[in-house]
Specification:
Number of domains: 1
Radius of gyration: 18 Å
Bound molecules: pyridoxal-5'-phosphate
CATH architecture: Alpha-Beta Barrel
Strand order of the largest sheet: 7-6-5-4-3-2-1-8
Number of helices: 9
CATH class: Alpha Beta
Distance between the termini: 18 Å
Number of strands: 8
Order of helices and strands: HEHEHEHEHEHEHEHEH
């Protein structure tokens, strides 16, 4: 890459990041929610390290914190150590295989894609310090699409309560990948479902559930809709990094 190409790429990242910030700001205003309610997570899958580095640097020039998200352990362990100097927090947002837990854990501050009690116990067993629990979210498949990960909505409350009770984990909310549909009402009803499940988890009063306030939902195409329905984390890939 020439210097010029590099500068262009940085300028484009700055521009797209500012656009996404503006979309978040407007969506919060429209929903009557404070902007600080919503955290931007940059989904860096398939993006090369220099681009991710540039995006984190660009994000530091905008107000508000930014999280990074990875779907694959292989990419996480390649990128996270190389960005330690910038200190971003990483969320794991893809399917996590049991045999990859050890490799992933040192680098993540939150596993959003928790969908089984078995994985929860495996994670908890590897948390080095019980006084510093690992943040987790339970991933729910609100759309029921067979290609999507996550626990079925009917099983979400039980799993969330079980997870919340595990020493070494801190349940911080629920996550979903919205329905793949052009019909906004279909996507919105999935987000509503996630929010009411989150409310049920909180209302259960079960041990460890009081911290489960988060809702990670919404991506580049529908962050406004997700924010209108209560998202606290929006996971943005293409709108910041450009098309994949
Ligand atoms: C890729 C990905 C995103 C971001 O998707 P975009 O449509 O590119 O914004 C969000 N969440 C998960 C789980 C992803 O895999």
């Amino acid at each position: 890459m020439t210097d010029e190409q590099h500068d262009e790429r940085i300028a484009a990242l700055d521009r797209r990041l500012a656009e996404v910030r503006e979309r978040v700001r407007r969506a919060c205003a429209a929903a009557g929610r404070p902007e600080r309610d919503v955290t931007l997570l940059l989904a860096s899958k398939a993006q090369p390290l220099p681009v991710v580095r540039a995006a984190v640097e660009a994000s530091a020039r905008t107000p508000g914190p930014v999280l990074l998200g990875e779907n694959r352990v292989q990419e996480l362990v390649a990128k996270a150590p190389a960005l330690l100097d910038l200190g971003p927090a990483w969320h794991f947002i893809g399917p996590l295989q049991s045999n990859k837990v050890n490799a992933a854990l040192p680098w993540v501050s939150c596993v959003e894609s928790l969908a089984s009690l078995e994985l929860a116990h495996r994670l908890a067993a590897r948390v080095p310090d019980r006084s510093a629990p690992l943040d987790v979210m339970v991933q729910v498949n609100v759309s029921g699409e067979p290609t999507k990960s996550g626990v079925a909505p009917d099983d979400a409350l039980a799993l969330a309560r079980d997870v919340a009770a595990i020493d070494g984990l801190r349940l911080v909310g629920l996550m979903t990948v919205g329905a793949r549909s052009d019909d906004e009402a279909v996507v919105a009803s999935g987000y509503d479902r996630l929010r009411s499940l989150r409310d049920e988890v909180l209302a259960s009063g079960a041990p460890g559930t009081a911290s489960a306030v988060g809702l990670s939902m919404g991506m580049s195409g529908d962050l406004e809709l997700a924010i209108a329905h209560g998202a606290t984390v929006v996971r943005i890939g293409s709108a910041v990094f450009g098309g994949r």
